[in-house]
Amino acid sequence: MLIRNVDHELLVVAISNLLRNAVAHGTPGGPVEVSFTSDGALTIINGGPVLDTDTIAEMMACRKTKPPETRSGLYLVRKVLERLDLTYDVKSPAPGRHDGVGVTIKFPLYYPPLQHPVTAPGRCATTHT
């Protein structure tokens, strides 16, 4: 199993932004949890206040009325992940917690085609003409 090729420089921008946000906006001195599962999900979780869905939506949106330096880093993450055609999910409280925020990026998995036909045990491959 391989993960589909993506622009790694853009991916680094998104993941480093998420990690910086998790540290900066999480519980002071608290841990940041990072996990990667076999189904291609990268999750970054921090402790801290629970955010309602309206607050998350506002953070993911670009408000051109705000100066660039005050816009949310989650907007940048959203734009990068959309450009890379990756799906993401933002949950608060974070998965498995009663507080914090969790962001999961889902990487599509790619299974290369088999080089040789596979047959069930005890059976022979047949060729139809």
Task: Characterize the structure shown.
With 129 residues, this protein is α+β, with helices and mostly antiparallel strands. 29% of the residues lie in helices and 20% in strands. The protein has one domain: 2-Layer Sandwich (Heat Shock Protein 90). Strands 2-3-5-4 form a four-stranded antiparallel beta sheet, with helices on one face. Strand 2 and strand 3 (41-46) form a beta hairpin. The two termini are 32 Å apart. The model has no long low-confidence stretch (mean pLDDT 82).
Q: What labels describe this entry?
A:
29% helix; four-stranded antiparallel sheet; 3 helices; two-stranded antiparallel ribbon; alpha+beta; 129 residues; Heat Shock Protein 90
Q: Structural class, from helix and strand content?
A: alpha+beta
Tally of distinct domains: 1
Low-confidence stretches: none
Spatially, the strands of the biggest sheet line up as 2-3-5-4
Number of helices: 3
CATH homologous superfamily?
Histidine kinase-like ATPase, C-terminal domain
Topology-level CATH name: Heat Shock Protein 90
Order of helices and strands: EHEEHHEEE
Rg, alpha carbons: 20 Å
pLDDT averaged over residues: 82
Largest sheet: 4 strands, antiparallel
Strand percentage lies at 15-25%
Q: How does the overall form come out from the CA principal axes?
A: globular
Helix content: 25-40%
Give the class-level CATH name.
Answer: Alpha Beta
Annotated CATH architecture? 2-Layer Sandwich
Terminal CA distance: 32 Å
Number of strands: 6
